[in-house]
Amino acid sequence: MVYKSLLILSLLCLSQINIVKAQDEAEAESVNEDSSEETDENVEDIDTESSGGELSEEEIEEEQDLQLAAFFAELELEEYELTTSEDLYEEAEALEEVAELMDEDDTVLISDVEYTKEEIEEWAEEIAQDAEDQEKIEEEASEATEIIDEDVITSELLFEYAEELEDLFEVMDSDDVVIIDGDELTEEDLTKYIDEVIQDAEELLEDEQEAEEEKLQRIDEIVNEIEGYDDIESLNLDELENLADLYEELISIMEESVVINGEVKTEEMLQKDLNEIYENIDNLIEIQDAEAVLEDGEVPTAEDYRDLRKELKEINMNDGLVITIDGEEYDKNALHEYLGELEELAEELQVIEDFDEEVEEAEEYNNIDDMTSEDLEEYANELEDILELMNEDFPTVDISGVEYDKSELEDYIQTIEEDADVLADAEALSEAIEVAEDSFGGTSEELEAYEEALEDIVNLLEDGEEVIILGESYSKEELEAELENLDTEIDELSHEEDLEKEIADVEEILNTDDLTTSPSVYEYIQELEDVLALMEEDEEVVINDVTYNTDTLQVEIDESTLEAQELEEAEALNKIASDIEQQVASYIDEEGIIFITANELDEELDLWKLLQDELDEDETVVVNDIVYDTESLEEHISELELQLEILEDDNLVIKIENGSSSYLSEEEYEYEETLSELIESAEEVWTETIISSVDLYEYAEILEEILSMLEEDQVVVISDVEYDAESLEEEIERTIEEANSVKHIEELTSEAEDIENLIETYSIIAKAILTADDIKDEKNEWEDLEKIMELEDTVVIVDETYTYYDVAEQINILENLIEELEENYKVQIIEDGVITIVDAEVTDSGSISSEEYIDMTTNSEEYDDDLPIILSNSQSDSLVSETGYDLTQVVVESDPIAFLQLETSLQETEPVEDLMREEGIEPVEDGPAGLDYHEGDAQHIIFTTFINDKPDTGKIWTYSYERSDTIRSILEGFQRPTGVCYDVNHDFMYVVDKGFDSGEGSIYQYQMNRKDDYLDLANGVYVVVYTGTPSDCKVDPYGNLYLLDSAASSISFITYADLYFGYTNAYTTYYVQNEDNTIINSPYALDLISNEDIYFVNNNPDPTVSTLNLAEAEVDELNGETILELVEEGETVAWGVTVAGSIVYYSLDNGEVKGYNIERKTVAVYSSDFFISPKGLSYGEGKIYVADNGEGTLYSMDYKSDSKPKLILYAQGINSVFSVNRASGLVLALGLLLLIN
To answer: Which residues contact 233 (CB under 8 A, 6 or more apart)?
Structure first.
């Protein structure tokens, strides 16, 4: 089969690699025979002998090459089910290779037929001619099939297809075949196929004509319905929505202009009318919301009036429009006046509500049954708040039915505060009594706590007062006397407790230790001394039923001290005796033979002399079961000194074997010692579980060392086998041969494991997509295996046995596959064990080379050669400006404590000089809001590009509408710039570089110079305002920065003041993922509505994680507001988000761009099956800008339209986009911030 190797790749179970290699000549012959039979019966065995005798190695190699070429030629001739020109050329080429290897008198067997060289050459020429003819047929067939390679097939295409097939028929002979849709067609088959195509075309033409009539009829119906509506300004909401649906349907089916109410309308004009209808719909919804504010039947509050004013401000009041609020009608001018009245009314009502709220909070304390002093203090504080609000508008106040003027309320507050003080004293006294009663007990510790509590009570009691404690009544004087008695009682009790504890420690030693060692006796003595130190002069104690006074206890300590000293001396003697015994034991080797050198005997003699120094006249010591006194010890030392003198004078070593003692020279001893160690090392090799070639080579080296030491008739025993010099030499040769064989097997194993590991990487992926480069990697592994294989070798890879010829065939198959993938720009897919070859589809323009990106772009059907192509593969190892500035980072020291608060005050009055701030953009106190970046005309586009797996390729580009032919790279050297945003009020640009590793990203701030046709850096200064793993940012009308951190799953906020002064990480986290807030999960992109609402998308495939979410932009504490889940898209990941009017657009990795309607709370699809991988989104001047990372393009989409997007430019690896919108009257001093005076 052609794809035999590819089927192997799809196997998911990998077997252990088994490699079989012949290890001797007989096994080699057997393996050769089996291998030849299993591989191919048509490959003849190579005859190494001829009538002239044995062949030379060169002749054998030539014969092998010929047989291998014949084998591959036979494979080429048999393997194809369909015959193509490419197949025929490969067959001819294979036969030509066979002919080139043949001599004139050679013959070769192919498919059981014997051929001469001349016959092979003629055969190759015939097939080559057939290949040329077939190639012409295929070219005609390709031209024909290209006609119907369209998403939609029309009758016109089918008729054209039939004509091309007839042209194809004219170039075919009766014996020719053509492959169409995978089927081989003869001349007769093609004639029938042409008739079928013509019949299909005629039937389709009838269907098209009928469909066209129905479509025209429907267009007329829609036009009539549209003409039946009045002016859109007079329509209600339902009528407008029905009209919008009609326009949507008409735009989707029209192919040319239509006439509505006598006016010719193009698709673009209809889309403009539709946008106007949608604006009216949004306006009516705003009006309904406003009208509903005061129609709930409840008394309106200040908040109701503020909400009403907010809703009314958002209404687009066209001339003539009249709305009804609370039964009153308002035109544009009246509404403007009404808005001012509402603001005043809300402020007045808010003052009343605040006063009433304070009264209600105070009255709540009167409902408490048992008020504490703390309750009274809080009640007094609430009354103080009311007192501060009392003025001419509130001269009196009614609290729980009692009316107070300002003076009466002050007296009432003073009374409450006095009551609170009295109650607090009573509470403290009660608490102290309770503590005293709880503390009272029989231990000194309990009595001390009781005494402390009594002291607190004495301090709280007034003269003449009494308290009851534990049922007894006490005056202040009686408690003071009780305290004096307690001091004495506590001291006596504490002494008794300490003495009992020390006695218990002594008894524990006596009961758990036999006191037979000096350390245990010394410990016993220490504990006795602790007891003695606590005893009074005439005091007695009982220890283990023995009574001691201070004198008798001192006697016990002295006697125990003498006993400890005696034990210590005996232990010292025993330690030396033990060292001597260990020294003597070290002389004995594994075979029981004793060797004693002069150095060893000298070390032993030193130990005996040390023992002699420690042994007293009346003492004895036992060494190796022999009892020594001072006399016998001295005799033994004399004998050892005499023996040592002999060894040192004559350079001898004592040898004791089987009870017989003899002397060896030091040279003889070293020889025997070395030989013994070598034999031991040789035997250790065979203790390994698996013997490797390294072990065998090491074993042979050891044997060679042993052989070099053997004398002519000497015999050694290794692993119970006797060897003389001759047999040991044979063992060495056999071992080296075995090591070479094992090494070869290990090399084969290693190469086969590499192949199997590569295959395993395919098997563990649910859907493996392999390019030509992937197949080349596999081919290289097979070639490495082939280089080291011998003809008789076999290997098992993924349960499949391979001979040398199988490996060669595998390489040939992979080479053919690589050629097919490269020439036809295809990839191989392995999914669920099924292998297919399909056209390559790029889902990440940054994953291919610049040359491949250019080729892909210029060969696309939609390619526009008037648009620029931007490449982003180049790298820069540092941040650089491409427009001439030397970049300098400025680091500003700041007080980090301020950043822990939700409200960050200004920390400087003047910015650091190095920041080079422009004049007029300083943060000011209570400054007005500036422009919203969504508003105004689109002026510039900023977009980012980077290659996802290639560092230092991140770039920032600008595109100006005034000069659309100029696209400029202004910054380079970022890692992964996933976001960019612009402060239109202060002209700061913020670049979000996510970084390659978690925590290594940053947000950079640059000062910009913005003109109508120009956007560039204002200077070379930049500041790092945030470090972490940021993914996106946006700026509100005050210049404050909102940012996402995808790794931390957080939304944070930086004030304009801290940004202006250039501080790093001066942020406050508003929302973060924790057990109470699980909605935010790997956030990737965000957008703002003013400084009120944050819309963000999560970039997480977990189906339980919401996609689009809404968070409030102002919070008082961490996670202080609930995040709302708006849309869930299951496992589909979101990348970008932008707010446009009442629609929140978001992009998905399935290629869709959807929109969430804020008012209707519905989701619509605005683009499907168009983009490959849309990521960054931005809004400007009625357009949604889409960065398609997959295709490497930037598009614009019409607002609230699903019409085809418009291509703006080509940019490899494009990721994020931001529309810088122009508006007049820039407000330059912004921010609700506190300025340091």
So the answer is: 280, 318, 320, 321
Between 8 and 436, whose confidence is greater?
A: 436
Tokens standing for residue 419: 């009551």
**What dihedral do alpha carbons 575, 580, 584, 586 form, nearest 10°?**
50
pLDDT over 60 at 1182, yes or no: yes
Q: What's the average model confidence in pLDDT over 749-766?
A: 83
Using one digit for the tens of pLDDT, what is the confidence trace for 969-995? 999 999 999 999 999 999 999 999 999
Decide if 175 contacts 126 (C-beta within 8 A): no
pLDDT of residue 406: 85
Which pair of structure tokens corresponds to residue 804?
Answer: 């040398």
Cα–Cα distance, 628 to 612 (Å, whole number): 10
* Cβ-contact 974, 956 below 8 angstroms: yes
Rounded Cα distance, 725 and 735, in Å: 15
Phi-psi region of 359 (alpha: psi -120 to 50; beta: other; left: phi over 0): alpha
Q: What is the DSSP letter of 1120?
A: -
Question: Which positions ≥6 away from 703 have C-beta within 8 Å?
Answer: 682, 718, 728, 731, 732, 735
What whole-number distance in Å separates Cα of residue 1208 and Cα of residue 278? Answer: 26
Yes or no: say if 346 and 355 are a contact pair by the CB < 8 Å rule.
no
The model's pTM is 0.47
Residue ranges in 651-724 assigned as alpha helix (H): 666-685, 693-709
Instruction: Write 3-8 long-range contacts (CB < 8 A, 24+).
Output: 3/813, 3/817, 3/835, 4/809, 4/810, 4/813, 5/810, 5/813, 5/814, 6/813, 6/817, 6/828, 6/830, 6/835, 7/835, 8/759, 8/797, 8/798, 8/800
Report yes or no: 587 and 600 within 8 Å, Cβ to Cβ.
Answer: yes
Give the sign of the dihedral formed by CA 852, CA 853, CA 859, CA 861: positive
Looking at residue 28, its pLDDT comes to: 37
- Per-chain mean pLDDT for the chain: 83
What mean pLDDT do residues 852-869 have?
Answer: 83
Q: How many helices (H) and strands (E) are present in the chain, helices listed first? A: 26, 56
Strand, helix or coil for residue 543: strand
The DSSP secondary-structure symbol of 892 reads: B
- pLDDT single digits (tens) 794-818: 999 988 999 999 999 999 999 998 8
Q: What is the pLDDT of residue 296?
A: 59
Band of residue 1234 on the pLDDT scale cut at 50, 70, 90: very low
Long-range CB contacts for residues 683-690, cutoff 8 Å, separation at least 24: 683/718, 683/719, 686/719
> Residue 214 is inside which H or E element, if any?
helix 187-227
